Amino acid sequence: MQFVSRLRGLALALVATAVACSAVKAPFEGGQKIALEPTSQVQAAEGTVQAKSTDQGNVELEVEVEHMAPPEHVAPGTRFYVVWAKETGKLETEPAQNIGSLTIDKNAKGKLKTLTPLEKFELFVTPEAQPNAKEPTHPAVMKADIASP
Q1: SS3 state at 89
Q2: Contact indicator for 53, 29 with CB cutoff of 8 Å
Q3: To 5 degrees, how large is the angle CA 107–CA 110–CA 116?
Q4: Whole-number pLDDT of residue 5
Q5: DSSP letters of 65-108?
Q6: Residue 47: its pLDDT value, please?
Q7: Per-domain residue ranges of the chain
Q8: CA-to-CA distance for 30 and 87, rounded, in angstroms?
Q9: Rg of the Cα trace of the chain?
Q10: Strand pairing report for 120-128 and 46-53
Q11: Who's near 109: CB < 8 A, 6+ residues apart?
């Protein structure tokens, strides 16, 4: 009888744990689409960021832009658009992270699929001379605030 009572208690504990775990949601579960806002340098540009949680706890980002002027027309000496993420609430002195580069095709469209561990951050795009730039050297041409709902 004591064994059955313990077994019942263990079963209840497992059920309670399963219910509690299912109530915890990933930050971007189901995905979230956010508009990228152009700055005055690329007023005709349009873009979106699709943010979705992964099973590993990261956030998968799919950045799509269109009507983008070639980077060298926006900032002389540049050839790439770099996508940056800067965690919200960090000091101004904290560096932004280079999370990839957009290659603009002949139709003025570009796309980047990448991952970040950040859940609340500013995403912005700058023209740069190299795709592996360590820090932004030009003003942002598009930006969005990304935060889990």
Answers
A1: coil
A2: yes
A3: 175
A4: 53
A5: EESPPPHHHHSTT--EEEEEEEETT--TTSPPEEEEEEPP-TTS
A6: 97
A7: 32-147
A8: 22
A9: 21
A10: unpaired
A11: 64, 65, 66, 68
Length of the chain in terms of residues written: 149
Cα–Cα distance for residue pair 147/149, rounded to 1 Å: 6
pLDDT per position in the chain (149 positions), as tens?
A: 554 455 455 444 444 444 444 334 455 666 789 999 999 889 999 999 999 999 898 999 999 999 999 999 999 999 999 999 999 877 677 889 999 999 899 999 999 999 999 989 999 999 999 999 999 999 999 999 998 76
* CATH fold label, 32-147: Immunoglobulin-like (2.60.40)
What is the Cα 38 distance to its own chain's centre? 17
Burial zone of 87 (CB within 10 Å; 0-12 exposed, 13-18 middle, 19+ buried)? middle
